Structure formats: structure tokens, C-alpha cells
Amino acid sequence: MTIDIHAYLAEFEDIPGTRVFTAARARQGYWLNQFCMSLMAAENRLRFKADETAYLADWPMTDAQRAAVLARDWNAAIDQGGNIYFLAKIFSTDGQSFVQAVSTMTGASAEAHNAMMIAGGRSPDGLRSKKESR
Fold first, then answer.
1. Which residue of 28, 59, 107, 118 pairs with 35 in a disulfide if CB–CB is 3.0 to 4.6 A?
2. Quick check: 21 and 87 in contact, CB under 8 A?
3. Alpha carbon distance 75, 90 (integer Å)
4. Distance between CA atoms of 68 and 64, rounded to whole angstroms?
5. Is 65 within 8 Å of 29 (Cβ atoms)?
6. What pLDDT digit, counting tens, does each position of 17-62 carry?
7. Which residue ranges make up each domain of the chain?
8. What letter would DSSP give residue 15?
9. Ramachandran quadrant class, 120 (left: phi over 0; alpha: psi -120 to 50; beta: rest)
10. Global confidence as pTM
């Protein structure tokens, strides 16, 4: 049995609220993720915080990727190919914890998000497919 890998991977786009980091997303977000990794160096974090727009101009990212970074819109950054583990370099540069940053992706407070995760995460009940609305 032969599987069409492109059709298989496209099925992941049907999961509400989930963005699977596929090879296509990795290619799309290459420069965004490289920028994030640059923030591992203290001198780059200082340059970025001093003038974020100027620092981002040094990277061949799309306008949408730059806008997502400047807005600290993690969902948009992931939609633009960002990987959450690379994006963590940005919110760490901002002095935010992982829980503080990712809670903004759900619209919950950090405390509510943390409590939900300690209790076992989101319920599997509810909307399971965008196309089937179930």
C-alpha cells in the first residue's frame, strides 16, 4: 500500500487549534527560526531589544513573520513557520516563562493555563475536525 505523503500531511491542517511542524512549515519559517536562534547570544539580545525593527531588517523574513515577532503573536508566528521551541528564545529575551507566553496562545491567564495543564491538558471532547465541524 502506497501512501501519498502530501495528502497525509495535509490532514494535519484539519485539526482545530493545532499546527503540526511539518517539513513545509520548516522551510517556510527557516529565516524566522534562524533569527530566533541568534538570540542565544547575549550581544544579539541586546541589539534586538535596543531596536527590534532594525535587528529584524537584517533577516530575510517575510513581512508577516516580522509583524508576528513585533506583535509577539505566537499563533501568527507558528502559522508563518515558527517553531515554538525556537520562538521561546524571543519570549525568554522578553523575560517571560514558557507558561506565560504560551498561555497567550489560548487566551487564558498564565495561572489558568498552568492549572489546565497540571489537570491533564485540554479535554479531547469538542471540535475535532474543521471540515466536519465536529
1. 59
2. no
3. 14
4. 6
5. yes
6. 778 888 888 999 999 999 999 999 999 999 999 999 999 999 999 9
7. 21-93
8. S
9. left
10. 0.82
